[in-house]
Known about the structure:
Order of helices and strands: HEHHHHHEEEEE
GO molecular function: protein-folding chaperone binding
Number of domains: 1
Mean pLDDT: 80
Number of helices: 6
Keywords: Membrane, Transit peptide
Low-confidence stretches: 2-24, 28-55
Helix content: 40-55%
Shape: elongated
Pfam family, one: Tim44
CATH class: Alpha Beta
CATH topology: Nuclear Transport Factor 2, Chain: A
Protein name: Tim44 domain-containing protein
Number of strands: 6
Family: Belongs to the Tim44 family.
Amino acid sequence: MSPQMIELLILFAVAAFVLFRLKSVIGTRTGYEAPPEHRGPGSDGPGHLPEDQRAEPPAEEMALRHTLPADARDALAAMRAVEPSFSLDEFLDGARSAYEMVLMAFEEGDRQTLQNLLAPDVYRAFEGVIATRESEGLSVEARFIGVRDVRVETASFDPETSEADVTIRFVGEMITAVRDRENRVVEGDPNEIRRQTDVWTFSRVMGAPDPNWLLTATGE
């Protein structure tokens, strides 16, 4: 076997290892799929009440609108009891924004942004992949296309510590390509939109001065 062939095999082995680590951190990517079924008007909206009557519903009603099980509804109600300003809709809007920020910071190797958004153990996992990628001369070019779906999977609340955990399932779309030192694409396609699914858990102590939720667990 020629030295050039051996070098190429080593390169692809390294790329495969880094991509395996990447998948374990940020979730599962698949090819482009059709968008989810269109939901009829008013399925999530406030109905036809006059504008001044559209007050934010209690946590139980918000949870029902997001088709959560009873234990999750109870957890959200407990969060709202400790912190009346808590809104599930606003939380999901923030989670959607955080999802894009975390994914792009990870792809771009933006450690500072990740430190601000991730719990320490999750940050170490992300940073480890970034460091390996850098040491092997691999770079990622990425573009975030959008979020197809965001939904609550589970929620829990500890009355002793007031710690809240909300697990979200995201379906997002990105364009990613991994390049080696010679700028050759070793994984992905800079012209292909790919879909990925992530299940992330965000945590926070309700009623605490810090309003920020941290990403404390990732899965798929």
